Amino acid sequence: MTIRCIVVEDEPLAMDVMVDFISQVPFLKLEKTYTDAIAAMKILNEKKIDLIFLDIHLPKLKGLDFLSTLKNPPMVIITTAYHEFALKSYDYNVLDYLLKPIEFSRFMVAVQKAASQSNKEIIPSEEKGNEGLFFIVNKKKARVAFQSIIYIESQRENVKIVTENNTIQTRIAISEVEKQLPENFIRIHRSYIVSKPKIDFVDAQEIEIRGKRLPIGRSYKSEVHSALGIK
């Protein structure tokens, strides 16, 4: 297993620490370092990156504002000297929040979370006719048919999959689930993916699906309205 990562950090000493820590972990591969988030956007569009080590206070574009621009972000570990942003950062589904000065032992706890999440807890079903996915739930493989899924909700390090018959939770990033879904699913928010055929109502701000009202994220609004034929 190799986790391809980048570091976005504007403090030279902090950058040196992160580069040194990453070099000591065999399964981490440092692709590049950046001193601002805008420069980092290019590699995310050109190359598959699995993990971002991201400072919050950056020039030009702050770390959390940067995350809000990403439709399918990789795993993110926040690195900062400011504890007051911890709670807000988890609204962006970050994997962990490291406070500077960062100790190597604490760094390893965070990257082990990344390694655990990368150990594919989602397996495409090979059955024909009623295709679906297998998710790891309580150390067992639970099969979920695509046609039964109503919506999927990100809950920090887990996702909740709401189906016609039940609800399951599993430890995986919503972006990983999204990659495996067919075209009749659409991401409407950084925390929600819905089944288009099951949508009952939609307006400029929300969709209603099986009696549940879900918000449409600002960065997703144009794509969602286009996909659903809304002007």
Describe the structure.
The strands form four sheets. The chain has a five-stranded parallel β-sheet. Strands 11-10-9-13-12 form a five-stranded antiparallel β-sheet. The protein has a three-stranded antiparallel β-sheet with strand order 6-7-8, covered by helices on one side. The longest helix is centred in the middle third of the chain and has 15 residues, at 104-118. With 231 residues, the protein is an alpha/beta fold. Strand 3 (51-54), helix 3 and strand 4 (75-80) form a beta-alpha-beta unit. It has two domains: 3-118, Response regulator (Rossmann fold), CATH 3.40.50; 148-227, OB fold (Dihydrolipoamide Acetyltransferase, E2P). The protein has helices spanning 12-23, 37-46, 63-68, 86-89, 104-118, 174-180, 221-227, and strands spanning 3-8, 28-34, 51-54, 75-80, 96-99, 122-124, 132-137, 140-145, 149-155, 158-163, 167-170, 185-189, 192-195, 199-202, 206-209, 212-215. The model is unreliable at 125-129 (pLDDT under 50). GO terms for molecular function: DNA binding; phosphorelay response regulator activity. InterPro entries: CheY-like_superfamily (IPR011006), LytR-like (IPR046947), LytTR_DNA-bd_dom (IPR007492), Sig_transdc_resp-reg_receiver (IPR001789). It comes from Aequorivita soesokkakensis. Keywords: DNA-binding, Phosphoprotein. The modification 4-aspartylphosphate is found at residue 55.
